[in-house]
Task: structure prediction
Amino acid sequence: MAKIINGKEMAAQIRAEAALEAAQFARRYGRAPGLAVIIVGSDPASQIYVRNKHKACAACGISSQVIELPGDTGEKELLARVAALNEDAQTDGILVQLPLPEGIDKRKVISAVAPAKDVDVFHSLNVGMLTSGDYTLAPCTPSGVLEMLRRTGIVMEGRKCVMVGRSNLVGKPLALLMLEQNCTLTVCHSKTVDLKKECRQADILISAVGKPRLITGDMVKKGAVVIDIGINRLEDGSLCGDVDFEAAKKKASYITPVPGGVGPMTVAMLMKNTVRAAFAAMEKKEK
Ligand code: GUN
Result:
């Protein structure tokens, strides 16, 4: 029977570390690190995510500014808001909550965020840095997964990692991070011919697709580490991941639950990234 990796507990620990670092920053520079979050429209899930980010900032001693814009905000107005935050000396991190309403070019908005303040690590310059291994910040959900593996003491070097999902937000950057850990990496996606066969090879099996019960018990090798990044809402309103948790738990050595697994780690890593961006900005100024 697998041991459960408790993301809720681990995220609390990381937030506590971020709070200590934020306090150190405040002592050194006479102000708190600052995060600005822009949300356009009233997508209910996005509103909950943004509220969680705001609460986490307050608990960590990070100053947080939430800019709520109506759903009919134009691209020009949004770009102007981003440009103002780029210039604001109190703002160390900028996050534009996705998805954006139709009619706004997401790529344009992401490219408008100053790379040094891009705590999501979505800007193509930062994605390029991540690819070359020369980076200060890694995207929040992928680095949250890596942190979970590290803190659980999972050996990555030389082990087979199968990443299911290749999104720009999670699958691709996490695949890069696992490669950097010297895993032997396979990336699977909707066109993979025999997903079961690929998954059964995995010492570390990670799914980030958004399909309930895509990963069944017979796809898990005995003793594998299973990381579930999917968050799916079922018809009865309950949340579940991509993995058939009960079946996979019987085969795996470690497994993350949904909820209470990877989810809380994303916000915790955002706190870390904000403090890191703040230190990097001030240290650059001092040079
Ligand atoms: N929407 C869902 N996840 C994310 C995220 O990590 N960052 C942003 N900006 N929007 C999101």
Remarks:
- The first strand starts at residue 3 and ends at 4.
